[in-house]
């Protein structure tokens, strides 16, 4: 089935996609944001695709992709670096952010993943809400957590954080403790925002092993 899907993609979308790759029995295609809506409509409407359902949409931040805090080329049998093996640092040469779409065809029982990179400068990408209505809250979530702007979305508001929240929590350079904290002020009788009052610290896992008797 995957082979047939790859052939259909090459036949009907070959000129419109940047690349395609099959991993873990699922096909991933990379599309430019200029071709996004055209490709999305084809994936939904063409008889060989029929991807009528958007089951997920998410943002991805590749800021530290391929970097490793613990450089090693060997895997150990025990300890903190158990099972880790690095062949060399990867160098990321594409845009920092991407939007990933997971599509399902109930009719043909097949899946596909579509990835679109977003310009770091403006973070704008067309909304697919007119193609898959389920994208409504997914796009709001990606906007809230990553700051990606979906052009054409009818109500692009924050979804998980407060409307007055500053920043986007899933960006890899966003501080773990945030920038502001909220508390209820009894004198003012309302919630107020203040700079965080705790210091950020890096938590390192500690492994404790019992000595053998």
Tell me briefly what this model is.
The protein is of the alpha/beta class and 213 residues long. Helices cover 15% and strands 27% of the residues.
Tag the structure with descriptive keywords.
alpha/beta; 5-stranded mixed beta sheet; 27% strand
How does this structure look, described?
- The structure is a single chain.
- With 213 residues, the protein is an alpha/beta fold.
- 15% of the residues lie in helices and 27% in strands.
- It contains three helices and nine strands, in the order H-E-E-H-E-E-E-E-H-E-E-E.
- The strands form three sheets. A five-stranded mixed beta sheet has the order 1-2-5-4-3. It has a two-stranded parallel ribbon with strand order 6-7.
- Strand 1 and strand 2 (26-31) form a beta hairpin.
Query: Going across the major beta sheet, what is the strand order?
Result: 1-2-5-4-3
Distance between the termini: 56 Å
Sheet with most strands: 5 strands, mixed
Number of strands: 9
Helix content: 10-25%
């Amino acid at each position: 089935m995957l082979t047939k899907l790859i052939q259909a993609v090459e036949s009907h979308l070959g000129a419109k996609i940047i690349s395609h790759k099959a991993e873990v029995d699922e096909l991933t295609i990379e599309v430019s944001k200029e071709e996004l809506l055209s490709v999305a409509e084809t994936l939904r409407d063409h008889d060989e695709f029929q991807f009528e359902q958007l089951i997920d949409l998410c943002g991805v931040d590749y800021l530290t992709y391929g970097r490793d805090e613990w450089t090693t080329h060997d895997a150990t049998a025990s300890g903190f670096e158990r099972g880790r093996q690095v062949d060399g640092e990867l160098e990321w040469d594409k845009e920092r952010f991407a939007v990933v779409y997971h599509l399902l065809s109930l009719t043909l029982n097949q899946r596909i993943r579509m990835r679109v990179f977003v310009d770091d400068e403006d973070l704008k990408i067309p909304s697919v809400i007119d193609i898959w209505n389920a994208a409504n809250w997914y796009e709001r979530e990606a906007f809230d957590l990553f700051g990606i702007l979906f052009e054409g979305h009818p109500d692009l508001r924050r979804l998980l954080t407060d409307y007055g929240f500053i920043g986007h929590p899933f960006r890899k350079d966003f501080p773990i403790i945030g920038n502001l904290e909220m508390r209820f002020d009894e004198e003012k009788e309302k919630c107020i925002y203040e700079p965080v009052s705790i210091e950020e610290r890096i938590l390192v896992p500690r492994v404790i092993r019992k000595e053998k008797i």
